[in-house]
Specification:
heterodimer; A: mainly alpha; two-stranded antiparallel sheet; 6 strands; about 5% strand; B: alpha/beta; 6-stranded mixed sheet; 10 helices; globular
Chain lengths: ~350, ~260
């Protein structure tokens, strides 16, 4: 990171500083429009985590996973069970989050192991089934021993606390009100930085190259000496861990989990973020995740007023119209930019050329 | 020629392979000596590529044994074969199209390097040193095969001849003892074939052993120390090119005859 900063020229440093300031000020700007927007922003960042995790599996290694939300669910439920009145356990978050990541990682390998020989459509169907199985378990694991509390979900989940500092409650520092969502935003921002750095480093590593090689041509990858079984399992495990961490944070921020949050639509939405943004390219995936989290919310608040301004009253139910516009936008984007908004290959070549030029 | 040329590097003993009712290989025995260029020829469908795939672990053999450096190879996966020291190219070039030429060769170093996820995430000293070594070796190999000026281009954008060379560079990156080339001259023009020949001779001069499957009989006869001929899944000849060329069975297999 230090090398990275010193290697930038003045102009880039200024740009970076401006972005940093903008990111720090952002929640206060959004809070003036309503705390709901800060919450939307936080969930958007959680979606970025998920999209980046799925990008390892789908984007790098080329393994189509339609049940990715299962790992998010596992992380969320691990947190919920270990930090709520449900079992009367209240472990600190820095203990639970690693546990959640580990459990999700194991779940990733449980999914990965039997599907190693499957590719494409077949893998998609199995992973889809896996996602549903996890959700059905959460829904029904309330009998005879009540583990998950079934469809009612788990409530009163602890927020993140360090000593007496509670991220779920409002505080006033220097005259500024730091609401719960704003505090979580800063935490998410820090984690996001770490996640981006980790992803970038993985991508540029021996393992990252092996993932892409498997995606490009599995037979050739084997012949070139890659143990495709282990490297694919590693992709599932890494992707799942990211999902598990995001799930734990989701449970804490939301304070409530139920199986309803982990339906198939969520898996497809995350996949859409990865594909729309540009499979394999970290920045594209981030852009895709932010766009697909914000656009439906923006539409939620604009569809109704626009209709009223045009026709005097709402002709089409806002919720229906919102998803219709969203769907059409998705179809059009993929029709005209099939490689996504910010595709990988070209970007990669640019970056390589830059790196070479710097030497 | 060096004194080690008579030492056996790889030996096939009665190798057989069936696909359903089709006997693709039957009782194929041959020996490849260290540091020689060994040619495997035969008409279309003779079983050359099948033998190749058995040797490199892509297919499992049904009968016989394959020995490499005196040990029976009982490997179930191609990556283990690469680890032992057999590298291959493919008849229908199989590069990682959306990776740069450089990255393609870097992937070849995978089997000889060890850094894992932890090393990558924390960019440890060992990881950076290994990455630098991988990069250096890949650069060397790109120079060696003569595509260094295309290092940053995506493999799929390289010319056909360059793709063939890049595939050889990727195979060489695994530090093989035996380099197995599946029809490397296929689709090449005369100039490209001449260049390829120089490259293969260079590889041998650097101490490697080369197994060459080829359709271009002229190339094989001019380049190889010894040649085996397969026909209908069976070996019909194995000797120095001049003897093989005069073998009536070989002539029959290639040209066909009605004088029996």
């Amino acid at each position: 990171m230090a090398n990275f900063i010193t290697s930038l020229d003045k102009k880039n440093k200024l740009g970076l500083a401006l972005i940093a300031v903008a990111l720090i000020v952002l929640p206060f700007v959004l809070a003036s429009a309503g705390t709901a927007w800060v919450r939307i922003l936080n969930f958007a960042i959680l979606y970025v985590f998920l999209a980046l995790g799925l990008n390892i599996v789908v984007g790098f290694a080329g393994l189509l996973d339609l049940g990715y939300i299962a790992f998010y669910a596992v992380g969320a439920y691990v947190y919920a069970l270990l930090a709520s009145p449900h079992f009367g356990l209240h472990l600190p978050f820095w203990v639970i989050i690693p546990i959640g990541a580990a459990v999700a990682c194991v779940a990733g390998m449980v999914l990965g192991a039997p599907t190693l020989k499957l590719r494409g459509d077949y893998l998609a169907i199995v992973t889809l089934g896996f996602g549903e199985i996890v959700r059905v378990f959460m829904n029904n694991l309330s009998n005879p021993i009540n583990v998950t509390n079934g469809p009612k979900g788990i409530t009163l989940i602890d927020s993140f606390k360090i000593g007496s500092f509670d991220l779920g409650k409002s505080d006033v520092f220097g005259g500024l009100i730091f609401s719960g969502p704003i505090k979580y935003y800063y935490l998410l921002l820090i984690v996001l930085l770490a996640v981006i750095v980790i992803n970038k480093r993985l991508q540029d590593s021996r393992i990252g190259r092996a993932w892409v090689a498997i995606r490009e041509d599995e037979v050739a990858a084997k012949a070139a000496g890659i143990n495709t079984r282990n490297i694919k399992l590693l992709a599932f495990a890494m992707g799942a861990s990211f999902g598990g961490i995001a799930g734990g944070m989701f449970a804490a921020i939301q304070g409530f989990v139920s199986p309803e949050s982990f339906v198939l639509t969520e898996s497809t939405m995350i996949l859409a973020m990865v594909v729309l943004g540009g499979m394999g390219n970290i920045w594209g995936v981030i852009a895709g995740a932010l766009l697909l989290s914000f656009v439906p919310e923006l539409l939620r608040y604009t569809v109704q007023p626009v209709q009223e301004a045009l026709f005097g009253h709402a002709i089409i139910e806002p919720e229906v119209l919102r998803m219709l516009i969203f769907g059409i936008a998705l179809v059009l984007t993929m029709r005209f930019m099939p490689a996504g908004l910010w595709p990988e290959a070209r970007h990669r070549r640019e970056m390589e050329a830059k790196r070479e030029g710097k030497k | 020629m060096s004194a080690t040329i008579n030492e056996v590097l790889m030996e096939a003993r009665g190798v057989g392979k069936r696909f359903g009712g089709v006997q693709a290989l039957k009782d194929v025995s041959l020996t490849i000596r260290r540091n020689e260029i060994y040619g495997l020829i035969g008409p279309n469908g003779a079983g050359k590529t099948t033998f190749f795939n058995v040797l490199t672990g892509l297919y499992q053999r049904d009968d016989g044994d394959v020995l490499f450096e005196g040990n029976v190879l009982n490997l179930t996966s191609p990556h283990e074969v690469a680890r032992v020291g057999i590298a291959r190219t493919f008849q229908n070039i199989r590069l990682f199209g959306n990776m740069t030429a450089m990255e393609n060769v870097m992937v070849g170093r995978h089997v000889r390097t060890h850094q894992n996820v932890i090393g990558a995430i924390f960019r440890t000293k060992a990881e950076r040193a290994e990455e630098a070594a991988i990069r250096r070796r890949a650069e060397e190999l790109l120079h060696y095969v003569g595509v260094a000026d295309r290092a940053q281009d995506l493999a799929k954008n390289l010319s056909y001849g360059d793709q063939r060379r890049l595939e050889i560079a990727r195979a060489l990156a695994t530090d093989p003892k035996l380099l197995a080339l599946d029809e490397p001259a296929a689709g090449m023009n005369a100039t490209e074939t001449a260049g390829l020949r120089t490259l293969i001779e260079g590889v041998r001069a650097d101490g490697l052993t080369v197994l060459l499957i080829e359709h271009d009989v002229k190339l094989v006869m001019g380049l190889c120390d010894r040649v085996a001929v397969l026909d209908y899944g069976q070996k019909i000849a194995e000797d120095v090119p001049a003897v093989v060329r005069a073998n009536p069975k070989v002539i029959e297999a290639y040209i066909g005859t009605s004088t029996h």
